Amino acid sequence: MPKDHEGIGASSKRREDVRFLTGAGNYTDDINVNGQAYVHFLRSDVAHGRLTKVDTSEAEGMPGVIRVFTGADFEGVGGLPCGWCVTDRHGQPMQEPAHPVLAQGKVRHVGDPIAAVVAETAEQARDAAEAIEVDIEDLPAVVDMKAALKDDATKVHDDLSSNLCYDWGFVEENREAVDKAINEAAHVTTLELKNQRLVANPMEPRVAVGDFNRATGEHTLYTTSQNPHVIRLLMGAFVLGIPEHKLRVVAPDVGGGFGSKIFHYAEEAFCTFAAKAVNRPVKWTSSRSEAFISDAHGRDHVTKIELALDKDNNFTAIRTETYANMGAYLSTFAPSVPTWLHGTLMAGNYKTPLIYVNVKAVFTNTVPVDAYRGAGRPEATFQLERVIDKAARELGVDPIALRRQNFVTEFPYATPVAVEYDTGDYNGTMDVLEKMADLSGFEARRKESEARGKLRGLGLNCYIEACGIAPSQLVGQLGARAGLYESATVRVNATGGIVVMTGSHSHGQGHETTFPQVIADMIGIDADMVEIEHGDTANTPMGMGTYGSRSIAVGGSAMVRAAEKVINKAKKIAAHLMEASEADIELKDGQFSVAGTDKSVAWGDVTLAAYVPHNYPLDEIEPGLEETAFYDPSNFTYPAGAYACEVEVDPETGKVEIKRFAAADDFGNIINPMIVDGQVHGGIGQGIGQALLENCVYDESGQILSASFMDYAMPRADDVPFYDVDHSSQTPCTHNPLGVKGCGEAGAIGSPPAVVNAVIDALHSGGHKVDHIDMPVSPARVWAAMNA
Amino acid sequence: MYAFDFERPSTLAEAEKALATEDAQALGGGQTLIPTLKQRLAMPSKLVSLGAIDEIKGVRKGDDGALCVGGGATHATVAREAAADYPALAALASHIGDPAVRNRGTIGGSIANNDPAACYPAAVLGSGATVVTNKREIAADDYFTGLFETALDEGEIITEVRFPIPEKANYQKFEQPASRFALVGVFVAKYADGVRVAVTGASEGGVFRWSEAEAALSGAFSADAVAGLALSADGMMSDLHGSAAYRAHLVGVMTRRAVESAG
Fold first, then answer.
1. Which of A631, A648, A670 is the C-terminal boundary of a domain?
2. Which CATH superfamily hosts domain B168-261?
3. pLDDT, tens digit, for every residue of A87-117?
4. Average pLDDT in the A466-494 region?
5. Which residues contact residue B2 at a Cβ distance below 8 angstroms, ignoring those fewer than 6 apart?
6. Could you give the 3-state DSSP secondary structure of residue A346?
């Protein structure tokens, strides 16, 4: 009998936390291969310049130095590939620059690796790197996106025609109709805003350990990755020319990713390459300072959005123009973020009939930008929910009523931006929020704040997101150079225990707890009988990893399909053992029984029979009980929610304090409510970080001004309130076997607009007619806006 | 970090001798120096830790009634042991950094470094304290000479800081959102012979006394007395976290709040 607290819907405690909290995790930096050497990368300290000299002769003679590598060593090797090709408004493919492992000819951002020293110790490698003589002929740095697109702008890549990666229109056929609707609208609200550049800053910096076995010719890369199979494919096929059967990629315990560990990085390719070149295992561990200038950054959009309404306040059209910063090179999935992960979400929760999204992606002399928790969807939500709030203020209508009036209410709903929402109940979710957040009590709380000299504001936000990133055929049509299915192998052992090998990857999500809950429910056994293996290409089927809130929706579904195959086979064995018809076999609470009789065999008896097939239908089925499934869903999933934030603004200093935060989410069915709470808490915290604190800033010369935690403000525990969260509004996904939608990014998507809307509301309550403040809404910015 | 020799003497005399080596550097709690070394931004020949010198670690009451804080006293020690005699100083110490910083960082290390956003310089200057070294006594007004600059000579060791205890005092810090150092910090202290107002975090020249506020408060120690005062933005720092005008404005706000809270 299963323990009744372990199946789907149980808040089982996270089993992985025992090892994480007791220091028993096995992170990549914990991996030390016998005989390993250490790498130090010499990185550019200028944003843009021509390399006129890289002299390694002195460094090569330094103590402990094994070899010094420069760009020249990688001339016969491929560059880092981009995994998504966007087609522009005119049907042309994006401009795609080369991305060498080590700089060749030019450096293009502060942090661009110029050379790498492999030495006996990390300090010796660093000493030698300082002895490398580098001459750089400075070139003007391209930092501002609009300036980068001027005809006379310096080019980041000499061989491209300009700094424009692509000019994307979506849906291009709707362009004129949208223009017409806006021209004819009763009211148009316009807002110009920035979605600032962020640094992901997972707690664990990146690490790579390359190892080469010269006896077998096999390479192994240990790396901090969210998707080891993707790294194996990209690095093996496009960079180093190593076939998969000679390349193993291991991503063990990974201490947070938030998207920044999806991508294939130069340091991974370097360590794999160098391990063979020097015939030694080679290890690189990023410092925090290095992370700021070598991990892919997030966001960095500059947008103008226009919302058209008719005389009855129905939304009639949306038009946006966005400049999206790609940085100096195209990171693995960078082109998809401002386009297919952003434009397709521009309908939000609303039945706006006409939408046109224009995105100009721009190369600059900055660190490459790619997916970061939410990836495109926070940018879409922020501009949409900010402009709706502004429209409500301009029109003098209640912001909730305006939203409710325009909600999509009938499902499935085909948006004018190419996606179909399968299910949702936006009014129902808003009902939950209004009650949970005690919105009717807000005016009393505002008066209480005013009595203490503080301005109180209420900010609302609704979001929809597309999760469970897939289906492969669709994303292939949109330019993805990868499939986006997921895989699982369910291996049942002879005595009934189960190992699930999933192609998805846990770096904080809690797979090791939630996935067994599903299996326990399906078979009726203890969750303790199920282990999850992930993160090693040698023992998991090829899968696409974890990002886009896809683990349970896609990876969990693959596991369910594999488990269904296992159960079907087990029923055949059980039927044989009980001399009954397979059609009459039922599985409940770990017992196979024959319908209408008292005959039954236990799960363990059947699994034993599978591996000790003395009494077994060998003429019908093979021994063993192990099945693999690859699941490719038919659609994205569409979690949605309504958030409310209350802030107090100190009118003397501009400091914002979040007093209350309520989040009502519809994630469909939920496997482990406690873990979902945690995901939402973390997401909101990260969103509050963006709204109030975090900001990655470059100066005009391309120097990064916020390159440490002294200037890059991470949210801390006392920056956030206790949250009220509720997931009771549930419309199960209609197209995956678990009815789940995904919850990993929702908080980060839904919270920034709620916070900023609240601050603007607070300022208006104090008589300050402020339309907008760009994030982070820092005390200095609030004060400046109040005193403009 | 680059390689260096390390000594941990247990007496001042030994420390003086150890610091006589060329490019030797004294190490207090290491809260600035160790990160600087890790970034290879400093290359001392020798680090001389002052952490084992018990004679400079205590907090005591001087014959003249001043609170005498040993140069090697940690912020946590001051927060605890100054609470009865000089609560404003203890409160300031208890809000520097986080517990790890407060249990390593020392008052001597802080004011020897004289970071323009550090809290302690405001207390030392705002109290008209005396910085005592192994060689001499330096009045606070003469001690702070600019950004990361002090009157200390090479190898000079801060042994004690003597704080005259005011009738009323308070420190108000507006935190820089990332580092949580003072974006603006104002220390106000009321003595029988007048009021001192010292400002940290704001000026391009480091900690300074706001003389107009001192004059106004010496006339009438009330928030109203400084309500009309506006500090010029000239010479104030401007960075990612706040313009010169914003910092100048905050000096006024923090000064009023310090006066209101002074006890």
1. A631
2. CO dehydrogenase flavoprotein, C-terminal domain (3.30.390.50)
3. 999 999 999 999 999 999 999 999 999 999 9
4. 90
5. B37, B40, B43
6. coil
* Residues A642, A622 share a domain: no
Distances (CA, A) of A520 to A48, A459, A493, A575, A587: 56, 42, 15, 22, 12
Q: State which residues form the domain around A674.
A: 424-461+638-788
Name every residue in A having a CB less than 8 A away from some CB of B.
126, 130, 289, 652-653, 655, 692-693, 695, 697, 705-706, 709-714, 776, 778-780, 783-784
Please state the domain extents for chain B.
5-163, 168-261
Total number of domains in chain A? 3
pLDDT for the residue A4: 55
Q: Domain containing A529 — which CATH number?
A: 3.30.365.10
Measured CA to CA, the distance from residue B50 to residue B24 in angstroms comes to 13
Do A385 and A444 fall into the same domain? no
A761 confidence band (pLDDT: 50, 70, 90): very high
Token digits for B239? 């960075």
Residue with tokens 């998809």: A336
The token pair at A18 is 């025992």
Confidence (pLDDT) at A477? 87
Query: Which single residue is written with the structure tokens 């946590």?
Result: B76
Residue A287 has pLDDT above 60, yes or no: yes
Tell me the C-alpha distance between A457 and A212, whole Å. Answer: 59
Express each pLDDT in A353-378 by its tens digit.
Answer: 999 999 999 999 999 999 999 999 99
B contacts of A697 (beta carbons < 8 Å): 240
Residue appearing with tokens 């992985």: A16
Tell me which chain A residues have a C-beta less than 8 angstroms from the C-beta of B178: 693, 706, 709-714
ipTM (interface pTM): 0.96
Q: Which fold has domain B5-163?
A: 3.30.465
Sheet holding A315-327, edge to edge: A164-170, A354-363, A315-327, A297-309, A187-199
On whether both A42 and A168 belong to a single domain, the answer is yes
pLDDT, residue A728, reads 95
Distance of alpha carbon B141 from alpha carbon B147, whole angstroms: 15
Look at residue A1 in the predicted model and tell me its pLDDT.
Answer: 45
- Looking at the structure, do residues A608 and A681 belong to the same domain, yes or no? no
pLDDT of residue A429: 98
**Domain-embedded: residue A316:** yes
- The residue among A48, A194, A290, A203 whose CA lies nearest residue A697 is A194
CA distances from A773 to A66, A323, A650, A651 (A): 53, 18, 16, 15
Tokens of B87: 């609560």
Contact status, residue A685 vs residue A659, Cβ threshold 8 Å? no
Residue A307: strand pairing partners: A189, A318
With beta carbons less than 8 A apart as the criterion, state whether A97 and A143 touch: no
A654 domain-assigned:
yes
- Cβ contact (<8 Å) for B250 and A710? no
CB contact set of B201 (below 8 Å; sequence gap of 6+): B116, B117, B173, B174, B176, B181, B182, B183, B184, B185, B237, B247
At A60 the pLDDT is 98
Most B-contacting residue of A688, A699, A706, A778 (CB-CB within 10 A), to test interface: A778
pLDDT in tens, A19-55: 999 999 999 999 999 999 999 999 999 999 999 999 9
Report the alpha-carbon distance of residue A752 to residue A542 in Å, rounded. 36
**B168: contact with A, CB 8 A cutoff:** no
Longest Cα–Cα distance in chain A? 86
Residues of A in contact with B253 (CB under 8 A): 652-653
**Angle subtended by helix axes A746-765 and A673-688, to nearest 10:** 50
Condensed to tens digits (0 to 9), the pLDDT of residues A604-637 reads 999 999 999 999 999 999 999 999 999 999 999 9
The DSSP symbol for A736 reads S
